[in-house]
Amino acid sequence: MSEIELSDFFYTELLTNVQALGEQIKNNFFKSFAVIYEEILFFSDDLTYSELFGPDSNRVYAVLIKDKENNSVLAAAHARIFLIENLENDISSNNTFVVPNYVIVVHKKFRKLGLAATMVETLEEAFLKDYPHRNVINFNLFFNPFSYKIFAKRTNSIIKPPCPKMANENFFIYELSHDIDNYFDLLRDGYKNLCDDLKLFSDLTELKDRAGIIAIHPVKMLEGNTLGLEAGDYVIDRIANKSRVIIIN
C-alpha cells in the first residue's frame, strides 16, 4: 500500500494543545490513548494521564491515526514540549531550546505503512509553527529500534549525551525495569542485512532485553546557539501527511 493510498483508508486527528482541551473532549481522547498505550507499551492509566496532561511540560501535542471505516485507533503519538535553557542566567533565544519528547505506538498489523514517521512529521510541523525562531532539538529514549531509525534517518547529525542512569558502563544505554515488545528478534535474525542505523542500535544495546538508547537529534538551530552547533535545518527529508488531518485546538 503506497502513501497515496493511505489517505483512502486512514485519517488523522491532531491535538495542538492537549492540556487546554475541555473536560469532555479531554476524557474522550484520554480513553483512546489509554487503550493503545496500555496494550502496546503497558502504560498504566495514571502514567498515560501524566504524559498527556501533567504540568511538567510547556505544552503537549498529540495525534491519532484512525480507520475511516470504523474510526478505530490504529496508531497514536504525543510530543511533550520542554523549553530548556542551556546556560544559567541567559534567557535569550540563542540559549533557549525547544525539546520535544515523543511517545509513539502503532498496532502490529499496520507497522509497515510508515504511520510512525507520518505522526512524527505531523507533530513536528505543528509545534514548529507555534515555536518559530527557536532552536529545536529532539531528546528521546528509544527502546524500539525502528523508532530510533526514523529519527536517525531523517536528520544529518546526532549528539551522544552523557546519561544519568547507566547500564553496563555505557552512557548510551538505559535499562527498563520491565519487559516490553522491542522487536529485537527481528534484528538478531537478520543482522547482516540491517541498515547502518539498526546495526548501531543493535551494537550499542547488544540486543539485551529491556535495553534502549538515549539519543539527541538536532532539528533546527539558530545562528549563535549556545550549543555551538551549525545553524540551519537538520532534517534531510520531510514527509507530508497525505491523509486528511482534523485539527483539534
Question: Would you kindly provide a written description of the structure presented here, covering whatever features stand out?
Answer:
This protein has 249 residues and is α+β, with helices and mostly antiparallel strands. The chain has two domains: 1-134 and 243-248, Aminopeptidase; 136-221, no CATH class. Helix content is 31%, strand content 27%. It has helices spanning 3-9, 23-41, 45-53, 115-130, 145-154, 184-189, 196-205, and strands at 10-15, 59-67, 73-85, 96-106, 135-142, 173-175, 211-221, 232-233, 244-248. Strand 4 (96-106), helix 4 and strand 5 (135-142) form a beta-alpha-beta unit. Helix 2 crosses helix 3 (45-53) and helix 5 crosses helix 7. The radius of gyration is 18 Å and the shape is globular. The two termini are 31 Å apart.
